[in-house]
Amino acid sequence: MKSQTKLAAASLMFATLVGAAGCSPDVEKSDPVAAQAPAANADIHPFKVGALDVVALRDGGMTGVPNDNTVLGVGRTPAEVAAVLTANGLPGDSFSLSVQPLLVRDGARVVLLDAGAGNSFGPGAGKLPASLAAAGVQPDQVTDVLISHSHGDHVVGLVNASGGLTFPNATIRMAAAEWEFLKANAQMGALVTTITPKVQTFEPGAAALTPSISSVAINGHTPGHMGYEIRSGTDSLLYIGDTMHHSVISVQRPEWQIAFDNDAPTATASRAALLERAAAGNLRVYAVHFPFPGLGRFQRRDDGFVWVPEAAARP
């Protein structure tokens, strides 16, 4: 199946499940958002990366997704998937996936990593504007949006309900290969038209996108899928995009295919490599679809790996 067709099928599947349908920065705001840490609540989780103020932002997610081997563990039986889930204290007949973009105050920059699902995926998503407000940020204060990849739950939030730019003063940055992939997706034609004037592309390994954030290619999920490394002093955080989707299945069975991977063999290899690297280096990780706030580390255990959250998950 051609990659564009696969993306369309995956996007349709995702929407159905949730109940609906190197460049250097060249503009800095002269009046940056005050870096006063907001108080944590159900939809935001502030934390630090070195001297940087960072906030996990709830956009929503989907719950009660049936364990029918069409999303997680494609090609495995529901019983196989259920056995892994229940061994970890989770229900075996269904699962949940969260959606949480990330806010980074990087000097004069107010940086958003991914833009959420907007109003396209039904009542399970669309909380990002309220979460940003709770973090003390208005949409016109965002200076940069770094896109991990172009699936709807990461880019539809770039456009508001009126069809305009959600973040009118932000430069939208994504890998050149991912921009080409997005432009080829007929389902995203209106969005592409709206955001085109704001898009700047980059090549993996190019100069830092903001003073503290650089791209990390993590191949397989989409043609230009990117992770992002946020670094301040000796501290760092690795934003892994959709390298992994589920905090149990993707970590403990990284070889199992997920429906949304465009190039499944490459994505599988990338998951395995990331787990090895992160566990060996004790890397701090931010996972967009793990239970909110998605912050933690991978640890080697017995003959595999487990996810160890840094903060207690909030439903």
Task: Please give a quick description of this structure.
With 315 residues, the chain is an alpha+beta fold.
Keywords:
7-stranded mixed beta sheet; alpha+beta; 17 strands; 6-stranded mixed beta sheet; single chain; disordered N terminus; 315 residues; 8 helices
Written overview of the protein:
With 315 residues, this protein is α+β, with helices and mostly antiparallel strands. It is built from eight helices and 17 strands. It has helices at residues 3-18, 78-87, 128-134, 152-155, 176-183, 189-195, 249-252, 264-281; strands at 44-49, 52-57, 60-66, 72-74, 94-99, 102-106, 109-113, 144-146, 171-175, 199-202, 213-217, 226-232, 235-239, 257-258, 285-286, 295-301, 304-309. The strands form four sheets. Strands 1-2-6-7-8-9-10 form a seven-stranded mixed beta sheet. Strands 11-12-13-15-16-17 form a six-stranded mixed beta sheet. β16 (295-301) and β17 (304-309) form a beta hairpin. The radius of gyration is 18 Å and the shape is globular. The N and C termini lie far apart (36 Å). Residues 1-35 have low confidence and may be disordered.
